[in-house]
């Protein structure tokens, strides 16, 4: 059974991870001249602006109940590459901005852990809240952000890593790529959920443990 502190830390980690991830996409697009995200209110840090019923709520709860890595997705921030001076470069910048935001947050959690490390025994003895913050929340926050980062860096549509594909496409292929993106998410998520269930193998979980798990362990001064 999942403990209450674990559940609370998971939720408090996952919400800012997806919110800043999506806002980073919109912010990058806005800096490249695209006002779409801003005009639709998607540069907000209000989590309700970014909630996707399946990707933000049901999928993380399902993974949490199964004891697997907690990750998911929010409603994609809309952007219009027609505003970019260079569509291909703009696609890559906007696509990688989300994972970059997650990396920065994970790195911040690691830095905080190192800063407090010399005085942890004293502070943990004085405050149970600090103990949960340090031992549960900080590692969870880093892991969730790294899971989200590396999951989205998979170079397959509709994930962010596929944005680099645009750099290698001609104009005709780029238009076809945009069409594929519209329908790729449902197909991809069905594969992600069904493959582990049907074949009893979890390649995504193994990949996340190798990448996100390894990096998280390097970021912290104690085993996680």
Helices and strands in order:
Layout: H1 4-31, H2 36-39, H3 53-66, H4 87-116, H5 120-126, H6 128-152, H7 171-199, H8 203-219
Helix pairs in contact: 1-4, 1-6, 4-6, 5-6, 6-8
Overall spatial form: globular
- Overall pLDDT metric: 87
Task: Please trace the helix and strand order, writing H or E for each element.
Answer: HHHHHHHH
The percentage helix is: 55-70%
Proportion of residues in β-strands = under 5%
Count of individual helical segments: 8
What would your notes on this structure say?
It contains eight helices and no strands. The two termini are 20 Å apart. α5 crosses α6 and α6 crosses α8. With 224 residues, the protein is an all-alpha fold.
List key phrases describing it.
224 residues; globular; mainly alpha; 8 helices
At a glance:
With 224 residues, the chain is mostly helical.
């Amino acid at each position: 059974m999942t403990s209450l502190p674990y559940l609370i830390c998971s939720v408090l980690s996952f919400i800012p991870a997806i919110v800043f991830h999506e806002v980073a996409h919109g912010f990058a697009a806005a800096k490249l001249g695209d006002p779409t995200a801003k005009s639709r209110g998607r540069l907000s840090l209000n989590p309700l602006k970014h909630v996707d019923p399946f990707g933000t709520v049901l999928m993380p709860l399902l993974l949490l109940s199964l004891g697997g890595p907690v990750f998911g997705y929010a409603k994609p921030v809309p952007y219009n590459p027609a505003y970019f001076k260079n569509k291909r470069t703009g696609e890559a910048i906007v696509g990688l901005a989300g994972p970059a935001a997650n990396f920065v947050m994970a790195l911040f959690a690691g830095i905080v852990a190192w800063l407090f490390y010399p005085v942890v025994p004293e502070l943990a003895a004085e405050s149970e809240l600090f103990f949960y913050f340090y031992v549960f929340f900080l590692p969870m926050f880093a892991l969730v952000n790294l899971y989200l980062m590396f999951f989205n860096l998979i170079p397959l549509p509709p994930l962010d890593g596929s944005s680099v594909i645009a750099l290698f496409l001609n104009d005709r292929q780029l238009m076809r790529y945009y069409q594929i993106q519209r329908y790729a998410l449902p197909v991809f998520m069905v594969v992600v959920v069904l493959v582990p269930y049907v074949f009893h193998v979890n390649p995504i979980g193994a990949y996340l443990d190798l990448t996100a798990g390894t990096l998280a362990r390097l970021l912290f001064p104690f085993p996680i």
